[in-house]
Amino acid sequence: MPRIEIALSPHDARDGEPVTFQAFDVPTALLIADINGSLGDAELWREGKRLARLTRRGGAHACFWEVRAG
Length: 70
Known about the structure:
Elements: E1 4-10, E2 19-23, H1 26-35, E3 40-46, E4 49-57, E5 64-69
Antiparallel strand pairs: 1-2, 1-3, 3-4, 4-5
């Protein structure tokens, strides 16, 4: 089964390189993105295809992810 790759793009990244993690499924990938979400925006990838773009909204409390396909 192909893994999901989570690419987090820090807001303050100078070199533009995302921080990546791997998960077995989309729910776990979203949990990883949420835990590490203070880094910035995220993208979910599988087998070289972008599944979704995630943007963290809200403040320190009651935050949520805006999800855009592809």
